[in-house]
Amino acid sequence: MEILLFDQNTGGHHAEYAGRLLNSLSEFGIDADILASKDSRVSDFVMDSDIIWAKGESEQNLRQLFDTAFERKYDAVHILYLDDIIETIDSLKNPNIHSIPVIATLNGSFFNHFFLNEVNASVLHYGPSLSSAVPRGVGFSTALKEYYLQRIVREGKINNILVHSYEGKKYIEKFINSDLISPIPDPVKVIDHNISRKEARELIGVDEEGIQLLFFGELRKNKGVKFLLKSLRAYEGPRFRLLIAGSPADVERAELESLINSIHLPVVERLKYIEESQIPYYFLASDGVLIPYKQEFGSRRTSGVFQKACGYGRPVIASDFGVIGRQTKQYDAGPTFEPGSTPDLNKTIADFVKNENQMYDQQSLEEFGREHSFEQLSETLSKIYRTVR
């Protein structure tokens, strides 16, 4: 069976996901290629012969995707990240989109917590024909995403929607037939580096001694980086070193540096994009991973940082809401705290620093990795590919 994968995004983790998935699918009898944007790093992970290079912007790339799938007679198309291109697909006029089964994954940003989106889902549940009344190409893709999604499914542009959580599936079921929605594992890259914590610290250039907690990933407001730093100004527990690694997104570098300078703890700041090859060492060098996400992050989406932490065998200190809170408790992956509560966050950190090894179960972390491996994902997808029409 031949599948054409597609991801409009070009970031390193998108490229790694696509590359690892493509290679893993082959173990289940799926021959996959990927259509990738010309500046994608996907060639770092797969052979060039498996890549078809896209030529332009979002709409042009989608046209190329469906034309290529039709001309080369692929059995199905799998859009790996639907979230940012729902409106574009809704507006797309291409007869080939209806000539081949299309599977699409909603990864995360679709599930950002916005009150209006909750209203949209309820309205569409009781008035399913209303999505037909929204004009195409009007914009407001964030505010109207439920309407656009329902319409592209009703019109047969998307035949099956994949989500990474049962919470996400339950939400989508409010306005889309549940038979068209399938939960799939959000895959974990299980540790494949046989190095010690000391060696990892040497590799990234941090002190070999002391407890180190990691905040990793794009520095965004909804991921709680400002909340964390402001909270730590009031921290009075045992000392630890904070390692912040990631590039500022919707927060100003100067503001972050000012907040860092205002806390009375040692901080190592790496406010930049971390190369894929270096990411394992940041986790392996740390004793725990901070996930102080705000509820605006979304209660139905998984966390890539949580996935990485479990894959590298590191416990988390996580906000207790949504998928993140559920998985942390379900797999005994570390302590949780009340979202947005400075006193509870600081108390939880202090308890962790004092009693690190008593606050999580290493075997449960490994179990999570096994249940959410690329092999598990590929096996699930291979079954979906063979049934979607």
TrEMBL record:
InterPro entries: Glyco_trans_1 (IPR001296). GO terms for molecular function: glycosyltransferase activity. Pfam families: Glycos_transf_1. It comes from the Archaea. Residues 197-360 form the Glycosyl transferase family domain. This is Glycosyl transferase family 1 domain-containing protein. It comes from Halorubrum halodurans.
